Amino acid sequence: MNKKILRYLPRYLALIAWAVVTIGPFLWLLSTSLKGPGENLFAQPPQLLPAEPTLENFRRVLQSQPMFSYLFNSLQVALLAVACNLCFASLAGYALARIEFRAKPLVFAALLASMMLPFQLLMIPVYQLALSLGLRNTLVGLVLPHACTAFGIFLMRQAFDAIPRALEEAAVMEGVGRFRIWAFVCLPLVRPQLATLAVFTFIAAWGDFLWPLILNDDPARFTLPLGVNRLAGLFSLDWRLVAAGAVFSLIPVLIVFAFSQKFFIEGALKGAVKQ
């Protein structure tokens, strides 16, 4: 028993150290949001636990900014982005996995190549497209970059490719059309991968700052990242209030991940592996 413990001890110590490094910034953010005005945020040595925890910072943030309005805007953008990406990415992924056409290898190669390009390189043409379509200061414009992603198409293509073709062949023999096969035969079998894609899309849309910043100049349509950014200038960069706003914006993401964790882990393990 002792030999087994010694064998796995370095591995568990490394995992614990990595967990501390990962969760440390969040704990420091939470601690900063609970500290009162009399506490020194940059004291040496650093003090993780607040001397007198208070929710005053959250009250001041909610009174000074329409945070619930920003929350509603972010929810609209994130949920619509998730719905669009799940629909369009699964349709495109199914076509790449099951439909044979001449340019299929070229399309798949272009898809993989596009995953290596940062959004900043595509931002100008996407911005011009949004302006030409009259999408400035609109919900659809904010959703546009997240409506269908290369990663989503790739993930769903790998998921559909792992489904036995015999299931679809049996449906074809029964006279079922291609669209109904996708909707009623294949989609229920890739629910873990759909959950994984939903979590990734929700987090990306929820935390997006650059795109709403350049497309949206109407404060009534600001999302939470833009609202938290306003706190820095409104209170001359009071880190307590900025931290409180950041914690407020993180709560929905933690809730979504907590409820989808089971499907997320299963989909992450299966979605990118061809079986």
TrEMBL record:
Q: Per its UniProt record, what InterPro entries does this chain match?
A: MetI-like (IPR000515), MetI-like_sf (IPR035906)
Q: Does the keyword Transport apply?
A: yes
Task: Give its localization.
Answer: Cell membrane
Q: Which Pfam families does the entry link to? A: BPD_transp_1
Start and end residues of each ABC transmembrane type-1 domain: 71-260
Q: Which residues cross the membrane?
A: 12-31, 70-94, 106-127, 139-160, 181-206, 239-260
Keyword entries, A-Z: Cell membrane, Membrane, Transmembrane, Transmembrane helix, Transport
Topology of the protein relative to the lipid bilayer: Multi-pass membrane protein
- Its chief place of residence is membrane
PROSITE patterns in the record, alphabetically?
Answer: ABC_TM1
PANTHER family xref list: ABC TRANSPORTER PERMEASE PROTEIN MG189-RELATED-RELATED, LACTOSE TRANSPORT SYSTEM PERMEASE PROTEIN LACG
What family does the entry list? Belongs to the binding-protein-dependent transport system permease family.
Q: What is this protein called?
A: Chitobiose transport system permease protein
